[in-house]
Every structure is written in structure tokens, then in C-alpha cells.
Amino acid sequence: MTPILVAHNPSWASQYRHEAAGIRAALGANAVDLHHIGSTSIPGILAKPVIDMLGAVTCLDAVDDCIDAIGRLGYEANGEFGLAGRRYFRKHDDRGQRTHHLHIYARNSADFSRHLVFRDFLLAFPEQAKRYSEFKAKLVDGIGVRREDYQAAKSPFVADLERQALAWSQG
User: Fold this and answer.
1) What is the model's pTM?
2) Which of 44, 36, 54, 52 is nearest to 10 (CA)?
3) CA distance 164 to 126
4) Strand partners, 111
5) Whose CA is closest to 21, among 73, 93, 63, 71?
6) How large a percentage of the chain has pLDDT more than 70?
């Protein structure tokens, strides 16, 4: 399936806030923090219309006890889904279109920090966000680009931005 990129939608921020309230309640006292991340959190850039959320918890293993509560919010649990130290959830709408991703890490996880630094870097440097948006647009410009191919082609570009973001955050 070819990824669809759309212009920034200002309602994504309120959609995130709505979902975040339910997720915080489902995680209970284990929840430390929740953030809107990914391209939908960066005004002015193209994004797949999927709200990415990043959660930090006191105890990652305790998230497994919350799977039913998160499931009642419409999320499908996917365990680590290829990334050790993460709990990953997806939500789909009534048509089966993916609408939300939830990534949960322990509060001191380097991966948790990496996601936040990447987002904050793109917010602080709009020219880098624009470069990223233009790069993504070129990737999907071809007909028949599969989601997996899109992700693989995007990875080196994102890794380079992440290195810049980390250097920036360490000042």
C-alpha cells in the first residue's frame, strides 16, 4: 500500500489531546508523560494522517497489565513490535484506516528521549522540517511505492536528522 501524505491539519493537536486523556487514564499511576510526536506534530510539513504519541511510564512491564484498558479505547496491542524496550499500540477507524500509533517506553529510555529531541529539533529549525517534508514528498511521488519501501528509503535521511538533533540537544 502506498503511503498517503497530506498537508498539516491543525485539528491533529486537538485529536492528540483527546486521545491522550484516555491513554493517561488507562495507564493510571504508571503514566509519567505523554507527547504528540511524528510529522503530525510539526506544523507546515506533509504527514501521513496518523497521530503518533509517545508515552513514558515508571514501569514498562506494568503496561502489559493495562492492555485491556487501552484496548477499550480502540487500540490493538503489538508488544515490542521489533523494538526492545517498547510497547506499541495501533488504532484504526471504522473503515480500517490507521489513525493513531502509541509508543510507550520507560521514562529514562534513550529511545523516549530520541523521539522528543527529533520533534523538538524540527520545531526549532523549520528549514530542516521543510527539507524533511520535501524528501518525503519525493519518495511517494513515484507510483506504487510500498509502505515498507517508503520506510526503508526514509530511514537514512531520518537517521541523519536524528544525529543533528542529538548534537543540537547536547548543545
Assistant:
1) 0.94
2) 44
3) 14
4) none
5) 73
6) 97
